[in-house]
Amino acid sequence: TPHTFLPVSGSSDSSSLHSTFTNILSASPDSYKPVAVIHSLSLSTSLSWPLATASMDEWLSLADASARNVPFLWVGPTAAGHLKPPGLILSQGNNALWHYTVEMAREARAREVDAMGMYNLTLQASSWDGSGYGTRVGLVQAMM
């Protein structure tokens, strides 16, 4: 099964991303192997629940149209670092991140999508800016 990174920036992503995704799913339509999808949005979306759910619905509908077994995993955001700039604390602070994580996990389960939150894993991890974590967190994320 090929591995491909598709830079999803929200809902209504480009048609080239859609065609790449559908090409991967249609490469071997008779295959019994599922094509797993890990879906997440970066903090650049300002923790928008409507944008995240629209993105989730968009990619799920593309997968459903393929008639393949396509299990999805929603990965929530990491916790904010203690030195986040003051302008980002209100929109991307730990309280906002926690509510976004909980709500998006609920939305994912409603769509029969597994959800994994990275918030608890990174809450007490060493991070200067809340975005870059050390190799230990990166290793745990890779193993998951």
Oligomer: single chain
Strand order of the largest sheet: 1-2-3
Instruction: Please state roughly what percent of the residues sit in beta strands, choosing from under 5%, 5-15%, 15-25%, 25-35%, 35-45% or over 45%.
Output: 5-15%
Question: What's the count of strands?
Answer: 3
Largest sheet: 3 strands, parallel
Tertiary shape = globular
Mean pLDDT: 78
Please bin the fraction of helical residues. 40-55%
Distance between the termini: 18 Å
Low-confidence stretches: none
Structural class based on helices, strands and sheet pairing: mainly alpha
- Listing every helix as H and every strand as E from the N terminus to the C terminus, the arrangement reads HEHEHHEHH
CA radius of gyration is: 16 Å
The DSSP helix count reads 6
Structure description:
46% of the residues lie in helices and 7% in strands. The protein contains six helices and three strands. Strands 1-2-3 form a three-stranded parallel sheet, covered by helices on one side. Helix 2 (49-65) links the parallel strand 1 (37-39) and strand 2 (72-75). Helix 2 (49-65) runs parallel beside helix 4. The longest helix is centred in the middle third of the chain and has 17 residues, at 49-65. The protein is globular.
Concise structural overview:
The chain has 144 residues and is mostly helical.
